[in-house]
User: Fold these one by one.
Assistant:
Number 1:
Amino acid sequence: MVQIDKKSAFLQLGRFLAQFGSENPTKNPNVLFNDLFYDRMLAQIETAQNYNGWFTPDQIRFALQSWAEALTESNLTQWLNNTSFLNTTPKKVGLVLAGNIPLVGFHDVLCVLVSGHKALIKTSSNDQKLLPFLMEYLICVEPALKDAVTFSEGKLDGFDAVIATGSNNTARYFDYYFKDKPSIIRKNRNSVAILNGQESKEDLILLGEDIFRYFGLGCRNVSKLFVPEGYNFEAFFEAMYTYHDCIHYDKYANNYDYNKAVFLMSLFKILDNGFMTIKEDTGYASPISSVFYEYYSDLNTLQNRLQDDAENLQCIVSNALTPNSIPFGKTQRPDLWDYADHVNTLEFLNAL
C-alpha cells in the first residue's frame, strides 16, 4: 500500500474524530462508516471513566478533538513532506504504550503504520479501550492495514524493534530486556513554565490549561514554574480559579487532600487556593494537584540550567523567554512533528 493511501486513511479518521470534540456532538453525514461507529464512539466516551477514573468524558473529548485537529490534510502533508518510505522493508515494531492520558501512545502507532512497518501493540491496563476501537475504524476505512496491527495481551515476542514508554524504573528493565533490538526507550519527563511577571491574565489562564488538562498526569503538563525574585502570585492564583471545578472529581480531590496534608505535616511552606497548592522546590516532578516553583535572578543562567537538564524536560512554556519554548496553552495540543523526548520517531523507523 502506498503512502498516499495511509495518509488518506488517517485523514478520514481525523474527520471521524472531529464529530466528538464538544459536549453536544453532531453527526456528520459525510463521514465514512458512521452507521457502524458513531454510536459506539459515543459509548466509548461515556464508559471510559468506568475503566480509568481519570478518563472523564471531558478529557476524552479533548483528546479526540486534539487528534482531529492534528489529522488534517495540511498537517499530514507538512509532516510527511520530506520523508520517503518507498523502499521500506516492513518490520514488526513492538510498542509498549503508557496509559497516563487518553490515547497517549497513538502517535507511535501512527508513525509505525505510516512508515510501512507493522505495529505489535501492548496497551497499558489504564488505556485498553480507545486505541483498539480507533484501529478498528481505521482498518474499516483501509482494509490493507489489517495485517499491520496486532494487539498483544501477554509478553511481546517476535518483533524487530521496539518503542517503549514507562517510568525511570521500568526504563531500566526495558534497557535490559530490549538490549539486542533497535529501540527508543522513554523515561519520566516533566514540563516547566517560565514567567517574568509581564504575562496577561489570558496568558495565565492558558497556563492553567497546561497545568490542569488531564489533571496534570501527562509529561507535557506543566509541573514547575520558574518565576523572578519577588514575584507576586496573586494574578497567577486569580487565573487558576478558572479551573476550580477539578476539585469536584473525587480522584483529584483525594490527591489534593493527601498531598496537602503531607506538605503540612512535613512543615513545608505552601501556598493554597482550595484546589491546588504551590510549593517552592528545586525538583521538577510535583505531585498531582500541586505545582513546584523556583525563583530565578538571571534568565541566561536559567536557560543554561534548563539546557543541562534537557533529558528531564519535555516542554518549556513561556512568552518566547527562551529558545524553543512553546506558547501558553499549547502543551497538550502537540503537532504531528512534535516528537516525545525530542526523538524523531519517523527517522528511527526509516532507518530500520
Number 2:
Amino acid sequence: MTSTSSREVVLGVTGSIAAYKACEIASLLVKRGVRVTPVLTESAQELVGAASFEGITGNPAITGMFAPDTNREIEHIAVATRADLFLVAPATANILAKAAHGIADDWLSTTLLATRAPILFAPAMNTNMYGHPAVQGNIGALRGRGCHFIGPDSGVLACKTVGVGRMAEPAVVVHAAMGLLTSRTQDLAGKSVLITSGANHEPIDPVRFIGNRSSGKMGHAIALEALERGARVVVVTGPAEVDPPAGCEIVRVQTAIEMCDAVLERAPQADIVIGAAAVADYRAGNPLSQKRKRDGEGLTLALVENPDIIARVGAAKTNGQIVVGFAAETHDLLQNAAAKLRKKNLDLIVANEVNTPESGFGTETVKAAFLDSSGRIDEQPLLAKRALAAALFDRILAIGK
C-alpha cells in the first residue's frame, strides 16, 4: 500500500436519506490519514449540517458555487485539480443524471466535469428508481467513461420497500475508495469474465415450478468486482432478487438447460468462467401444458437430472482458461467441495456454508473456503459478499501467474 497521508478526497454528499452515513465515511477516511474536502449539495443540507463535516474533517465544507468564503482555494477548478479522488456518497439518481449528461448547475456537478481524478459513486435511492432504464442507462454511460461504482446493496429502504437501492455500508465504501487511492491496478483489464448467477425455475405446469432460494447476491458481487478491476463481464442469470450490475452484458434465462446452452455458447471466448448460480439439479420430466387442478389424490413428479453446467465447461476448458465452481453445502463442507473440484476438472472451487443465519442464500455475508487443484485450502473469515468477491479474484489471479 502506498501512503495516503498526502492524498485528498472530495466527498460529495447529495440529497438522499443516507446522507447521514457520509459522516462516518468522512471519519473513516480521516482515520486512514486522508485529507477530506466535504461538499454538500443544497438538498443534502436539508438532511445533514455542514458543521458536522467540518468538525470531522477539519476542513471547511463547500455548500454552494457562490457561498461566501475567504479561502479562495475552495474554487472548483483548484479543488478539481488537487483532488486524488472524487467520492459521491450517497449518489442520487439526480447527480448520476447530471454527471452522465454533462449538466453543471451547482458546485459538485460542475467540478465533476472539471476533474481528471477517479470518480467513485455510491448510489442510494428507491429500488424502482434504481431499476429504471434511465438510471441504468446513466450508470452504464458513466461506467463506460471510466467512473467507478460501489453498491448499492439490497434490503429494507427508507421508503419501507425491500430491494436494491440501499447505499453500501460506510466501511465498504471506504474500502473501495482506498483501493482507488492506493492505485490498485486494473488487473483484469483485457480479460473476459463469464459468470452464472441466480436460480433456475423448472416448470411443473404453466403456473408452478421447482426452484431454490438463491438471491443472486453473490453473482452480483462477483460481477461488480470484475467490472471494477477492468474486465469485460458477461452474466448469465436465472431468476434472482438482485439484477446484475450496469455495465455487464446480461443474458436472462429461466431453466438449467437454457442456462447451459447460454454458457456453453459463450465459454470458449471467456478467460475466466465462474459458476456462482444455484443450478437446479433436477427438472420435471413431463411438465404439463395446462395448470393442474387439485383432485385430492396428491401429485407425483418424475424428475430428470439436469446437465452439470460447470462440469461441462471444465471438461472443455481451453489452455489458460480458469474455471471456478461453487459448492453450497450443509455438511462435510471441505470434503464435498474437494470431490466436486476433482470430478468437474475445476481450477478453483468456493466452498460455502448455507445452513447458518449469517451465511447462505439471501444473506449479506458468507463463510467460505477456497480449494484449488493443487490441494491448497484457504479458509476465509465471515465476509461481506463483495469482500469475498475481491478475495476470490485475488486468488484467481494468483493461479494465473
Number 3:
Amino acid sequence: MKKSLVIFAILIGTTIFSCKKKTDEDPAPNQNVPTTGIDKNKLLQLVNNLRTAGCTCGSTNMPKVAPVAWNDLLEQAATAHSQDMATKNYFSHTSQDGKNPGQRLTAIGYTWTTWAENIANGYTSEEAVIEGWKNSEGHCKNIMNASMTEMGVGRSGNYWTQVFGKR
C-alpha cells in the first residue's frame, strides 16, 4: 500500500510540474501599443468591422459603409485633446482655449473638408470604448458616417478622443 501511495504522489507531482507554464513560453508584449497606450490596429479593426457590417445607432439603421484608414495627424490631434482634457480636468469637444475639433485639425496641418469627433472618459480598453461609442446614437453615427475616410484615436489615462476626417 505504501508503495502505491509513493507512486501516486510522484505521478501527481510530475503532472502538476509539467502543466506549469514556462516563462520562456510567455507571449511577447503587444508591439502595436505605442506610448499613448492604444492599439491602433485593434481600434481600426473594431471600427471597420462596424462600418463594413452596418449597425443600428439608437433607432437608426445604418447601412454598410467603406472602411476608414488610419491617419497619424488625426491621431496626433486626438492625443493632444485627450491629454489636454486629462491635464486640465474637463470633458468637452471644445478645448478650454475655445477651439473646436476643426480648428485643432487645421492647427496641426490637416486640411479637411469634413470632420467628426467622439470623446469618452472612464474606459480602460479599445473594445470597451468602441462599444461605448457604438451604444451612443450620436457617436455611433459618427463611426458610421460614409463621408469619413480617415480616423485617428488618442488616449491619456482614461480620456479618449476619436477624430474622423476627410481631406
